[in-house]
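Write out structure tokens for Phospholipid-transporting ATPase.
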Amino acid sequence: MDFSVLRNLISRYCVGEENWLDSRTVYIGQKEPPPGAAAYIPQRYPDNRIVSSKYTFWNFIPKNLFEQFRRIANFYFLVIFLVQLIIDTPTSPVTSGLPLFFVITVTAIKQGYEDWLRHKADCSINECPVDVVQQGKAARTQSHKLRVGDVVVVKEDETFPCDLVLLSSSREDGTCYVTTASLDGESSHKTYYAVPDTKAFRTDREVESLHATIECEQPQPDLYKFVGRINVYKDTEEPVARPLGSENLLLRGATLKNTHHIYAVAIYTGMETKMALNYQSKSQKRSAVEKSMNAFLIVYLCILISKAVINTVLKYAWQWSPDRDEPWYNHRTENERQRPVVIRAFTDFLAFMVLFNYIIPVSMYVTVEMQKFLGSYFITWDEEMFDEELGEGAQVNTSDLNEELGQVEYVFTDKTGTLTENNMEFIECCVDGNVYVPHAICNGQILSAASSIDMIDSSPGGYRREHEDLFFRALCLCHTVQVKEEETVDGIKRGFHQGRPTSFYISSSPDEVALVEGMKRLGYTYLRLKDNYMEILNKDDEIERFELLHVLNFDSVRRRMSVIVKSSSGEYLLFCKGADSSIFPRVVSGKVEQVKARVEQNAVEGLRTLCVAFRRLSPDDYQEACLLLTQAKLALQDREQRLAQAYDAIERDFVLLGATAVEDRLQEKAADTIESLHKAGMKVWVLTGDKMETAAATCYASKLFRRSTQILELTKKRTEEQSLHDVMFELSRTVLRQRSMSGLSVDCLDYGLIIDGATLTAVLKSGPEGNYREVFLEVSRNCSAVLCCRMAPLQKAQIVKLIKASKEHPITLAIGDGANDVSMILEAHVGIGIMGKEGRQAARNSDYAIPKFKHLKKMLLVHGHYYYIRIAELVQYFFYKNVCFIFPQFLFQFFCGFSQQPLYDTAYLTLYNISFTSLPILLYSLVEQHVSMDTLRRDPSLYKDITKNSLLRWPVFLYWTCLGLFDAVVFFFGAYFLFDNTTFTSNGQLMTTNTQMMFGNWTFGTLVFTVLVFTVTIKLALDTHHWTWINHFVIWGSLLFYVIFSLLWGGIIWPFLNYQRMYYVFMQMLSSGPAWLSIILLITISLLPDIIKKVLCRAMCPTPTERAQGTEKLTRGPADSTPLPSHYRLLKGHAADSSRIHLGVPETSALGMPEPFPQKLLLAQRPKGGGPDLCSAVGPCVLRLSGAGFAYYAPGPETSV
């Protein structure tokens, strides 16, 4: 007996896990293989349930309480509350227990509600209907009931419920088209293939009759990698084995497009799908302010313990003599005499802890929670962050991180759908140096595509005309575009024009769609690919048919694509398009210099350029090319290398036709936003799953990279040429040498780094030659911008985690719009989702959601700035006012025999933080604006003033603490000296000689408390820069409320109180004129040092923020904040006013001056009273119009019109 089989069976059934195996076997349709095949061993896999929630019904209370009491403050107040319950303390347990219960309850409700929303989202996904083939017909079931091996029917525009292997398609060739926008950010269409042996099974019954198994690797998170094998069993033959790759795997979250339906088998389900493996677990995020609060809390806890220890030791030192230990007025009971001294000392220590515990007020945490919750509505209510197109504004999913928006140092952004709209626009094309633009302006009107003016005149010679025709045909044929008649997207029908159905294009590359649409506007229309024939409609409305023989697909190494077609006349043509660097070296004829000049000009303007070339093939050349391609495609070993060699042999001896210019339309104000973030001191990284060339072009267009930026490449292509070790240290030497020279030279180089996913994996792994992480961090730290391309979702999170864990521990922000961005959004300190076209996964899992990337500027530079300023003042002010509050209580113990006698009345102890001083600081933390919004937007560098938690550093904290100690000493000893001389009145009461005021400990405490309340409130008023009627009402109203409450509390006999120790105390104190004078004097003395310090600092070394405040006071007026007029891009056809047509104006740089582009302005002045228009103002240039385009001919690449 083979014991290995038995051992495998026992392991699979007992353990229930297959992770120990290198591969898994999937039985299609849950059917056993026919007799004689491999042994049938069923394996256990998870169901298709997705779980993104954090709590369950059963673990919510214990898990949430555990997380909340991990906070030092909550745990501390719980201990104090228990102490008050156990021993006899000077204050009631309610004073600590009630606020703690309020904070715990509110936080639990908020977190429970957020998790309930996640549960709802999970249920909506898990209960989605899915069609499964069972017993020869499709049956409807729910998504979470899917099992590995089930055959699923997916129809057009449906999302794949799990990871599937394609079996067959409604298309005869066994292909289907898929958009993976929610996975890798690419909204373009990709082609997937069924293996030849299963693509013929195209009905439910045929699929049910299929006997096959799939052997594949275990689940792993790489979206671009899949290794497997399908074994198809036939009746009389051995099973046919076919390889499976990533081109056969349909990933969960992707959407079926342009294909009626497909049959596919479930291969990975539930939390084992590649998308789920790329999700990060949702953890509790804590802001830097909260960490500072916890640190300050520990310091004040040490101070509290020190006070309690000092008072306990001094109490027993003072009571050492018997007459002080047990005076005649305070005899102890027998039980108290018999208690050990250690127990009594410990009880006294706890009593002192409770007496002084107000130095760490629970009300601060209540106020902070309220400030965060209420303050988050300012983002939601911001009308400038409302998008009319979406009909939605910004959303706040968690309010715990508001202040973190003001501390961001690194911004990690997705590209597609975040920086760009993923909407390419054809700008122009150049044929033999002659430029064609899709829109022409004549007689003040933009010519439409329906115009009948002939664009390509017959006047040029035959050579030029032939090249024009070949160029336009090349762009209509050299692509992988599919034609679709109609499609509904977001409720809008595409492909309809004026009520009639028209065709539109879809492709795996938006560049190709833009080029084909551009040709359509210039007179040549690609119609369809039918029966391997490509049909185009030429300018004469004649249909031309070309047989498509071979497609030489684009790849990032060759950077070009080719097709071999056969014309109706039997001529073989090879059309090629690609990057200029890959086309020009293979050109043997054509007007290279003129085309190269135009390409360089377009590249300077940030346009994406492609060159177009062709080659005529003789029948022998074609047969030779056919042989090379067939042999390479049939190779099982080194197929990619052999294909590359075949492509290299075929793509040669080109005739250059021309070039194209396409603009990847950035989101509105994306470049301005990135520029502002750079000025604010943030480093911007672009993390994308897109190709390097596409991503780099976007980085240039968005001004992440500039013309002067020296690009450093850390890519797979370069590491294949050199070892990773050599490349890393060469880059390190380059940037470090430049940094050492930057102090000697004014013109220091600006570096930008490009790294791809494969190289990043190698960098993050520690190899035998050393750990490259630190070298990579050192290089990237010295680069102004970094582009990471071909990133898997989990790699995005790894990059963010790597930067978070670096020695500076910077605050990170991640922003994206697709499910592929969720991992980095969850990993970063702050995650922002964009409500884009790629679903709402990112917005749902983020901390904040905004409609467009441009809104990030205001969210950080304005809202983030304000949030941090406000909460930093709130935290420091709360500690300050409680030092002022409790330190006199500590000093008072030296004058009352350390008897734990409170200095203040119980009502004052309870209401000080709840009523008398809470509302002013809460309102300040909601509405304070130390500088105006316009100033913050206009000068992003002010953001640097608050980064790195500058307002909550230890020097600032110590200043506030020392200021509180100084004020407390002034309060206590000022009032003490006021009561220095006392005499007895005729009725036995004690009266002060210098104030003629009744003297007692409650009067003394009330005087100290009155000075305290007025001082801390006026201190906050002095710190307020933005005054509104609400500020006045709350600040002066709080002081008035204190006075009125004290009058009522001491002026009425309350029947529910068994003692009236405060009766008439406050009114008697105010009846003394010297008391009024002393109150005013003590308040002035207390505030004077802070005022002097601020005046001197502003005069001698003002911060940029203080200078901005001074500028605002000196210059107030609408003219000061008027922005510069906007400039339009080249060849847009916008009119700046009614009499001026701008065909091209260069964009302005950050200083408002045009950048030195090698071009001239193309302007046409139209007189108001009429006169020659553009058509007659061209001068010596020849302008030919047709359709919606024009061409201008000139001796060089620059022309003034």
